[in-house]
Write a structure and sequence with these properties.
By secondary structure, the protein is α/β, with parallel strands linked by helices. It is built from eight helices and five strands. It has a five-stranded parallel sheet with strand order 2-3-1-4-5, sandwiched between helices. It is globular and about 40 Å long. It starts with a strand and ends with a helix. The model has no long low-confidence stretch (mean pLDDT 95). The structure holds adenosine monophosphate. Adenosine monophosphate binds next to helix 2 and helix 3.
């Protein structure tokens, strides 16, 4: 199964993506994790991404599309993948379409986790990641609305999009997602 998980920062995308990947035995691809690893290893990519991530801004589409193209070209993802944190802009969504066409992947399903703003701010402040300050959180939410919401509209036109209410226990939400996407 080929999946994308969308949702604002703090929606629980990462947590759910890991669980779904385990359950369905598919590869979990988190662009945030790939970038954090690059920052920790001080690679060329990491050095470029560090400042941008600390401000809650987005790494360039060109870099991100390159990363995803590289990941999806691996034979490891043939049996299935779940993209977490990508695409975050319309440009990335269009780039992804090109990559998927080229590699012969179709039948993509989109999961969108919906969580209200006040709940998100509460959760992110409690998470304690170095890029989770109140300023950065507000910036990420604003960027999410401006840049990532259009991605959902784009997918609504031609793909299966499953809305999931992201409030409840982690287990409950995983169950709801698995039920919805298996129909
Ligand atoms: P995440 O773990 O998905 O919250 O990502 C952490 C940070 O990595 C984001 O705030 C962005 O700075 C950067 N990032 C992750 N994925 C992307 C993406 N698809 N496009 C641009 N920047 C990204």
């Amino acid at each position: 199964m080929y999946l994308i998980i969308l949702g604002p920062p703090g929606a629980g995308k990462g947590t759910q993506a890991v669980r779904i990947a385990e359950k369905l035995k598919i590869k979990h691809l988190s662009t945030g994790e790939i970038l954090r690893k690059a920052v920790a290893e001080e690679t060329e990519l990491g050095l470029k991404a560090k400042e941008i991530m600390n401000k809650g801004e987005l790494v360039s589409d060109e870099i991100m599309i390159g990363i995803i193209k590289n990941e999806l070209s691996s034979p490891e993802v043939k049996s299935g993948f779940i993209l977490d944190g990508f695409p975050r802009t319309l440009e990335q969504a269009k780039g992804l379409d090109g990559i998927l066409n080229e590699l012969g992947y179709s039948d993509l399903k989109i999961i969108d986790i919906l969580v209200p703003d006040d709940e998100i701010i509460k959760r992110l402040l409690g998470r304690g990641r170095s890029d989770d300050t109140i300023e950065t959180i507000k910036n990420r939410l604003e960027i999410y609305k401006k840049q990532t919401l259009p991605v959902k509209e784009y997918y609504l036109r031609e793909r299966m999009v499953y809305d999931i209410i992201g409030i409840g226990s982690v287990d409950e939400i995983t169950d709801i997602i698995l039920k919805k996407i298996s129909v």
